[in-house]
Design brief:
By secondary structure, the chain is α+β, with helices and mostly antiparallel strands. The chain has one domain: Nucleoside Triphosphate Pyrophosphohydrolase (Alpha-Beta Complex). It is 19% helix and 37% strand. Strands 1, 2, 3, 4, 5, 6 and 7 form a 7-stranded mixed beta sheet that branches. The radius of gyration is 15 Å and the shape is globular.
């Protein structure tokens, strides 16, 4: 089996004191809760990816204003890099989302997130770091990514 590198772009989307989470509907991770996000496509930057993924998984349009956390995992399958952005709702109106991939979209308080059993969270081990950064308002400016687009997109 060839090893690979996957880059995941996820968002911590807040609405007052609640945070948007999704419950997975894909077989290998069915019923697990996670922040919305997904794989970076080869022709997009990370900010485009997270905005697209949140819309596809939740039906909400967002903007991103900072980075919450970056996690790096090295596994027997390869490398997994997850960039968690802080997102803000562009519009509170929820559009349709991919119900074949997402079973449920729900707003959680920090306390409700903390009380989710680890076995009900996708990537449960790293979730404590996410909650810690949310609770302590830890974030990093977007410009640490220093995103440049060198393609000839029109």
């Amino acid at each position: 089996m060839d090893k690979c590198i996957n880059i995941i772009c996820s968002a911590c989307v807040r609405n007052k004191d609640k945070i948007l989470m999704v419950q997975e509907n894909k077989k290998e991770v069915e019923n697990l809760w996670d922040l919305p996000g997904g794989k970076l496509k080869i022709d997009e930057d990370v900010k485009e990816a997270v905005i697209r993924e949140v819309l596809e998984e939740t039906g909400f349009k967002i903007n991103v204003n900072s980075i919450l956390l970056i996690q790096n995992y090295v596994t027997n399958k390869g490398v997994l890099l997850i960039i968690y952005f802080n997102g803000v709702l562009e519009d509170k109106k929820q559009l349709d989302y991919r119900k074949n991939e997402i079973k449920s979209v729900k707003w959680f308080t920090i306390e409700e997130m903390e009380n989710l059993p680890k076995e009900n969270i996708r990537g449960g081990d790293g979730f404590e770091n996410i909650i810690n950064n949310i609770k302590n308002n830890i974030s990093y400016p977007l410009d640490i990514l220093d995103i440049h687009n060198y393609s000839n997109k029109n």
